[in-house]
UniProtKB/TrEMBL annotation:
E.C. code: 2.7.7.12
Molecular-function annotations in GO: UDP-glucose:hexose-1-phosphate uridylyltransferase activity
Catalytic activity: alpha-D-galactose 1-phosphate + UDP-alpha-D-glucose = alpha-D-glucose 1-phosphate + UDP-alpha-D-galactose
One GO CC term, this protein: cytoplasm
Galactose-1-phosphate uridyl transferase C-terminal domain boundaries: 251-445
Localization of this protein: Cytoplasm
Principal location class: cytoplasm
Involved pathway(s): Carbohydrate metabolism; galactose metabolism
InterPro entries the record matches: GalP_uridyl_Trfase_II, GalP_uridyl_Trfase_II_CS, GalP_Utransf_C, GalP_Utransf_N
Keywords: Carbohydrate metabolism, Cytoplasm, Galactose metabolism, Nucleotidyltransferase, Transferase
Organism: Leuconostoc mesenteroides subsp. mesenteroides (strain ATCC 8293 / DSM 20343 / BCRC 11652 / CCM 1803 / JCM 6124 / NCDO 523 / NBRC 100496 / NCIMB 8023 / NCTC 12954 / NRRL B-1118 / 37Y)
BP term (GO), one: galactose metabolic process
Protein name stated in the entry: Galactose-1-phosphate uridylyltransferase
Amino acid sequence: MSENNLITEFTQRIIEQSDYTNEDANYLGNQILGMIGESNYEHVTSDQDVSRLSTLTLLDNLVAIAADNGTLQNRKINADILGAQLMDYFVPRPSQVRQIFWQHYDHAPREATDYFFDLSKRSNYIKTREISQNLSYPVETEYGQLQITINLSKPEKDPKVIAAALKNKTQQQEQYPASQLAKENEGYWGRLDYAARSNHRVIPVTLGNENWYFQYSPYAYFNEHAIVLSENIRPMHVDQENLARLLEFVTKFPDYFIGSNADLPIVGGSILSHDHFQAGRYDLPMAKATLKESFQISDVNLSEAGVLNWPMTAIRLIDSDSDKLLAAAGKVMKTWEDYDDPSLFIQSHSQTGERHHTVTPIVRFRDHKYEVDLVLRDNNTSTEFPDGIFHPHSDVQHIKKENIGLIEVMGLAILPPRLKTELAEVEAYLLGNTDSVAPKHKIWADKLKYEETFNADNVTEVVEQSVGQIFKRVLEDAGVFKNSEAGQAGLKKFIVQLTTN
């Protein structure tokens, strides 16, 4: 093959970054050739210096050749499937990845996660290019700094679709893999309607005497965004059993926080049908929140406990003894599960006994102590608020209507990709470059127009900061005890239940 041959260069990159050697060069080259197709073979030679191309650009070129050849159509695959198959050559076999991971772990947990994170990025399992397209910026509020992200890498799911998926157990049992999070995704080629996972690896971790698996999110929302999934495919459940697993995880990996989505529709995450957690080596805004009121839970003497200064109702428990924390958290969760306050539309169960209360739990290990944050959630609906009483209300759904899951609870907005175009149209309207704007944004845009004088230098900043303040309102809508006189009085009544019973 010639000097500027794309396959030759791609083969050399594999050899440089894996345990393949130069003796494997012909084998690798023929494997790649077979995968992209041999017709139009001359196109694998480039006019440019291929040694200067990034590995992902080489990959793009090879996939494009396969598309031109008709190989993708003939094999009934798409670009993602072929790309994952080609990048799989950079990744050791699962058994090797696990062996190397635990060898690093014996030296230091951070060394193990560094190895696995770097491998997941280099193999393009973590979609670094797509993630870099996301738009993000901070916004200051009375609760501290929040983070706004317009997600351009991964589509958000409609809350009603999420709830339907939880109920549709028959379909879940018949498909393979049984879940997007199932361990069987490791190495799965994918389908036209299912994500490619050829270059995917998972690390087995024992939590609560069960097999769980540690992996990274392909569309990370923050540094080292990880998913920890149950081997047993069962619905999400938030209880002391899983909270103990969260505490055990941060004992094993103290550089990471870990949390769980709530286990009910409307207030839960995007996948309620498979028990899993999310983790990462990152301080989301909530981690920096301070206590606005301290208290002690009866019968459990913790180092510190109290209510956070946060737009949602969040209780933080701190102690070096994980067993004491588990007991205290159990009391909070049980008390909230059965707690009613009709004056604030807080109802724990329906007349038929359906549960409406749960928590979003987050666990960290900082300064030699465990921290447990429990965010109180209620998924009731009403005639006035059919999408959820404690869900983003209709006047802010032009910015965010999706579920408020774990990551957003912690202060990182994952806003839908539609906003990139829509906010540009709002800016044009504010500058007078157009006379119309989408009806759903008009009330907000007219209010901004009345309050501010806009020019090309300030319009983007004002719109972005206004979006940030709307996200703050979104979180306040999701809060069960509002930061109002009535809401805080209701919170005090709830705290009495924790401190005296």
